[in-house]
């Protein structure tokens, strides 16, 4: 199996020679993970992705949603009744939303997709015009001012005038195990009580079994599937099943896979995070691809940039948008221990560190991304069989899988994204699906044959 290694040497070379710009524009990843695919041979699938407002699973399945009056509602997908309505739906939902801090948010975005596969991988390529005026390469940021470090930044909802936040491209997959996911897709994971949708209080969440104090120790409600609640419909975020019941669901594969390309927290290492949704939005087992660069006890950063690799110890404000500079901090690659004597007042460090994922959490280590003329391109390579069925959906050539895709663009978070309706993807010639992937030869594998370790 091919393993991508982040050698200090290779990455140092990339930093020094300034390969951030390639013929394809600004390369978001420091290492080269772009599969050598002739995309001209792969059909373009255009999708309009829309702002879903406050539409939650309980609303979709309540009498307020006129669709439920249809006696076959349970067996129909959104597109059965709403085919081609994405744009109109986004326009209607945004009009009735409270978006005072995001007045210019588009109600929909047009995205070009291409889907390909080989024996080992699924490839999803997506291109969209971004609202961010530059690639979003900063997330939580550390500012040194008057001898003190503070965390600054925030998404556009919370910090409308000076947001510092990443953009995201998220893929949710099921293999038919989760009842209703084919029909209702990502709405299965979207409920009242979640952050920014009639938010449950910290105190109430901490008081919950399984989710709260003594369990996952969470302070808010994030994505979950209705199967994990004792009541399927209505407001049910607080009606959590027991740990044993939830563990059994997981063993039965009744979770959905959720992988997120993050323009700051994963793109620099050519990766996407790897998680799943069950009773909460959780990370796969192993080491995640990002962590904090903050020693909270000491109130200072863990690391600064290693000047011998990057040419600087810390950032100045203008560097945030200087595309001649690689400004990601990759643990152990271009970082060194924090030394206060090297930092000047008014300088910045990344609040988050990129690192190589390990185990199932590190499965998505071949996600190429670039930014050119105001457009992002993400080429998501996903092993069909990751070898980790306990928290991934395993795919195979000839199979059909349920997909839902979301884009958080313009430095936004939570529900302030654009989504597709759920759709099915068939893998390879002869497979069935709303989209069927085009077989290509195994370029990554061939290119690196001999380097395999
Ligand atoms: C069986 C048909 C059917 C299905 C399946 C269905 N809907 Fe609907 N939906 C309707 C009807 C009918 C309305 C009433 C408004 C209309 O005529 O468009 C509606 C209204 C809506 C509205 C509000 C728009 C408005 O004009 O009030 C939203 C949002 C919506 N549906 C989303 C969804 C989503 C998301 C799904 C899939 C999870 C879905 N619907 C599945 C039939 C359906």
Automatic annotation (TrEMBL):
<keyword id="KW-0408">Iron</keyword>
<keyword id="KW-0479">Metal-binding</keyword>
<keyword id="KW-0732">Signal</keyword>
<keyword id="KW-0249">Electron transport</keyword>
<feature type="signal peptide">
    <location>
        <begin position="1"/>
        <end position="25"/>
    </location>
</feature>
<keyword id="KW-0349">Heme</keyword>
<dbReference type="GO" id="GO:0020037">
    <property type="term" value="F:heme binding"/>
</dbReference>
<dbReference type="GO" id="GO:0046872">
    <property type="term" value="F:metal ion binding"/>
</dbReference>
<protein>
    <recommendedName>
        <fullName>Cytochrome c-552/DMSO reductase-like haem-binding domain-containing protein</fullName>
    </recommendedName>
</protein>
<dbReference type="InterPro" id="IPR019020">
    <property type="entry name" value="Cyt-c552/DMSO_Rdtase_haem-bd"/>
</dbReference>
<keyword id="KW-0813">Transport</keyword>
<feature type="domain" description="Cytochrome c-552/DMSO reductase-like haem-binding">
    <location>
        <begin position="36"/>
        <end position="420"/>
    </location>
</feature>
<dbReference type="Pfam" id="PF09459">
    <property type="entry name" value="EB_dh"/>
</dbReference>
């Amino acid at each position: 199996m091919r393993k991508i290694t982040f050698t200090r040497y290779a990455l140092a070379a990339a930093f020094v020679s300034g390969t951030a710009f390639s013929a394809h524009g600004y390369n978001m990843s420091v290492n080269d993970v772009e599969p050598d695919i002739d995309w001209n041979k792969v059909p373009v699938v255009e999708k309009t992705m829309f702002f879903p407002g406050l539409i939650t699973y309980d609303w979709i399945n309540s009498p307020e949603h006129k669709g439920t009056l249809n006696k076959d509602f349970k067996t129909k997908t959104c597109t059965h009744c709403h085919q081609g309505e994405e744009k109109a739906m986004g326009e209607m939902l945004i009009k009735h939303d409270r978006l005072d801090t995001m007045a210019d948010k588009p109600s929909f975005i047009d995205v070009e997709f291409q889907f390909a596969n080989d024996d080992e991988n699924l490839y999803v390529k997506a291109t969209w015009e971004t609202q961010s005026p530059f690639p979003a390469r900063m997330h939580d940021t550390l500012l040194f001012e008057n001898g003190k470090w503070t965390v600054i930044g925030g998404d556009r909802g919370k910090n409308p005038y000076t947001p510092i936040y990443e953009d995201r491209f998220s893929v949710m997959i099921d293999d038919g195990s989760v009842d209703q996911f084919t029909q209702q897709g990502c709405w299965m994971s979207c409920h009242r009580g979640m952050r920014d949708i009639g938010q449950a209080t910290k105190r109430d969440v901490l008081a919950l079994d399984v989710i709260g104090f003594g369990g996952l120790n969470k302070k808010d409600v994030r994505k979950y599937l209705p199967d994990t609640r004792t009541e399927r419909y209505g407001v049910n975020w607080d009606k959590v099943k027991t740990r044993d019941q939830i563990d059994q669901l997981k063993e039965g594969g009744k979770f959905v896979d959720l992988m997120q390309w993050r323009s700051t927290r994963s793109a620099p290492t050519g990766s996407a995070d790897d998680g799943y949704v069950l009773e909460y939005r959780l990370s796969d087992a192993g080491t995640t691809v990002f962590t904090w660069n903050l020693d909270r006890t000491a109130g200072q950063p863990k690391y600064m940039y290693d000047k011998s690799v990057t040419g600087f110890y810390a950032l100045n404000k203008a560097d945030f948008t200087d595309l001649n500079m690689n400004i990601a901090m990759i643990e152990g690659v271009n970082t060194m221990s924090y030394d206060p004597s090297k930092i000047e007042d008014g300088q910045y460090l990344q609040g988050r560190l990129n690192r190589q994922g390990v185990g199932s959490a590190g499965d998505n280590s071949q996600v190429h991304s670039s930014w050119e003329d105001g457009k992002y391109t993400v080429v998501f390579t996903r092993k069909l069989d990751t070898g980790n069925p306990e928290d991934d959906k395993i795919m195979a050539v000839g199979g059909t899988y349920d997909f839902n895709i979301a884009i958080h663009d313009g430095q936004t978070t939570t529900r302030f994204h654009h989504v597709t309706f759920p759709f099915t993807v068939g893998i390879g010639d002869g497979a069935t699906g709303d989209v069927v992937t085009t077989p290509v030869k195994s370029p990554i594998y061939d290119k690196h044959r001999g380097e395999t370790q």
